Amino acid sequence: MAWNDNNNKNPWAGSNQTPPELEEVIKDFKNKFDGFFNNKKSSGAGASKIPSSGGFKYILILVLLVWLLSGIYIIDPAEKGVVLRFGAFQEETSQGPHWHIPYPIETLNRINVEQIRTAEIGYRNVINGNRRFGGNVSSESLMLTKDENMIEAKFAVQYKINDVQAYLFNVANPDTTLRHVAESAIRQVVGQNTMDFILTEGRVSIADDIKEKSQSLLNRYKTGLLITTVNMQDAQPPEQVQSAFSDAVKAREDKQRLINEAQTYANDILPKSRGKAARMLEESKAYKSEVVSKSEGEASRFKQILAEYEKAPKVTRERLYRETMENVLATTSKVVVDSKANSMMYLPIDKLINARQANTQESSTQQNNQGGNVRDIFRNRGGR
């Protein structure tokens, strides 16, 4: 019958019945479902009937569906998923929804690759309630330095997983392996440095060396671990020698203080000494120029006198005599005596001597002022 017949109504609308095929399917499912869950009395025995094969089929389908749905999983952004099939590596999955064949065929391992883990070397943090206590582990913290001193060193090695497949399959206990590797590297680096260097300015460089050596060993073992930071938590001498070490530290501080004071004094005195030396050098150069110029002038004057003397020796001798007497008598006390007088005269010898000494001192003062300190030094050296 055409669909447009019966006033555009459903062909089965007139009888208000469902289609025959759908009705039979629903009835068949209902009978099988009732036959499995409803207990019916057997003829004369009262026991429930064994489920029919159709009921088992639907149960198996339901169980299979639930089993397949159990293979759906979601990986968080900070995680990596590793699927194992019968214990062997199958695949590695990243964040998002995924599906794998459910257990026991395949299993899923979730590995947090962003979590920062910490390996404590030389100590252990013990948490008691809300309080954290640091416990010392002497078997790990006691180490021998390059200068044969004992030191207690505590380190915190922070690391994370960067290769989940290597982390799961290459090494049996990767975290324990990292602890042993870090302890070995720490002992090696500490043994290559002196105690003073470790306790003072060497903390950062030592931590960097430990990180480099530890990561090199971990890469060689293919552990899949990446060291992010190495921190020196504490480093000090053992308690038995703490007092002696404190004295040594104080002595080192005193030494540094004296060095600083000496450097301050040197910074003050050296510029002054350099300035004084430069001044003396300039004065000596000036004195040299003065002496040379004076000597050259006297030599030139002597040559001129020589030329005049060769022309008129007697006149030149008389002039030189008069000039010399004029220079000598100009600075001395003079007593004029008439050669024709016969009376005895009093000569003031004491006054003449005092006047001569005063003139001598004045002449020396003038010479010192002209030549300066440098000329006195050269004269004294020449006198020696």
Characterization of the model:
There is one protein chain. Helix content is 55%, strand content 19%. The protein has four domains: 20-69, no CATH class; 72-112, no CATH class; 117-237, 2-Layer Sandwich (Tetrahydropterin Synthase, Chain A), CATH 3.30.479.30; 258-327. The strands form four sheets. Strands 6, 9, 10 and 11 form a four-stranded antiparallel β-sheet that branches. A three-stranded antiparallel β-sheet has the order 3-2-5, with no helix packed on it. A two-stranded antiparallel sheet has the order 1-4. The protein has helices at residues 5-8, 20-37, 53-69, 138-141, 164-169, 174-191, 195-199, 203-221, 242-311, 313-329, 349-383; strands spanning 72-75, 79-85, 88-93, 96-99, 106-112, 117-121, 123-128, 131-136, 142-144, 150-161, 225-236. Helix 6 packs across helix 8 (203-221), helix 9 (242-311) crosses helix 10 (313-329) and helix 9 (242-311) packs across helix 11. The chain is α+β, with helices and mostly antiparallel strands.
Task: Give the helices and strands, then pairings.
Layout (H helix, E strand, L loop, with lengths): L4 H4 L11 H18 L15 H17 L2 E4 L3 E7 L2 E6 L2 E4 L6 E7 L4 E5 L1 E6 L2 E6 L1 H4 E3 L5 E12 L2 H6 L4 H18 L3 H5 L3 H19 L3 E12 L5 H70 L1 H17 L19 H35 L1
Antiparallel strand pairs: 1-4, 2-3, 2-5, 6-10, 7-8, 9-10, 10-11
Helix pairs in contact: 6-8, 9-10, 9-11
